[in-house]
């Protein structure tokens, strides 16, 4: 008698656990917002895995750090210090170029706000040279300043826009600091207040005329890495998906790989030979494979009732 009672209790516990997991994934998490659709372009930039245009697109590790603007014309890089336009993406070297609106260049200079990176993100500073502007003199006493590159400061001080920072043309370079290699503080920020500087610029290349800052290429290079979700098998699936004109994404909450096809049918393989996304994956951005809301509601009510009886 006791054995059968124990077996019934064990059976009820197993069933309740399975139903509870299903209820959590499809009744609780189904209420979370999903992206409308994934695109392979944002503005003039091509968007490929691991980057994505929104929630459920690309790799889950890259959202919300990279997304397309609500107007669809600008790819953005977001951190705790702000949102910055992405002007170039080099997939072969895993590099982004961002241009913060408050960053100076030879034609436009202004006081800048701090620039930061989020530590959990897959991004880190790439090979660019930071030049700190309108600093408390003398910058030669600052340990972070590379005095061997003072010629960059002298060149920046030939820009007419330098007067916007309260300096005169051809001002002494003791108010300028070439900060390379740049290193952010414990908050992940270029803290201009702590460095006692008003603004900054970042130089990617000196171009064909190294002494003419009007010809320099400005921007901040960010390198990214792929880990975790971005394993070898996912990379293979994504390559096949993109070759079939699909867009690589993921299906919350388990973040299973999804190939988003233009036909409207999302696949767990590619768009040539679509394999429907498993019902337990909760679908994906704009996916018709998602359980209809009315049906899901009734299923959830039924599951909840069974759970109450079992528990």
From TrEMBL:
Domain called Wall-associated receptor kinase C-terminal: residue spans: 231-263
Location(s) in or outside the cell = Membrane
Glycoprotein as UniProt keyword = yes
Keywords from UniProt, A to Z, are: Glycoprotein, Signal
Domain Wall-associated receptor kinase galacturonan-binding, chain residue ranges per copy: 38-98
- State the annotated membrane topology for this chain: Single-pass membrane protein
Q: Which GO terms describe its cellular component?
A: membrane
Enumerate the PANTHER family for this protein.
Answer: WALL-ASSOCIATED RECEPTOR KINASE CARBOXY-TERMINAL PROTEIN-RELATED, WALL-ASSOCIATED RECEPTOR KINASE-LIKE 15
Q: What is this protein called?
A: Wall-associated receptor kinase galacturonan-binding domain-containing protein
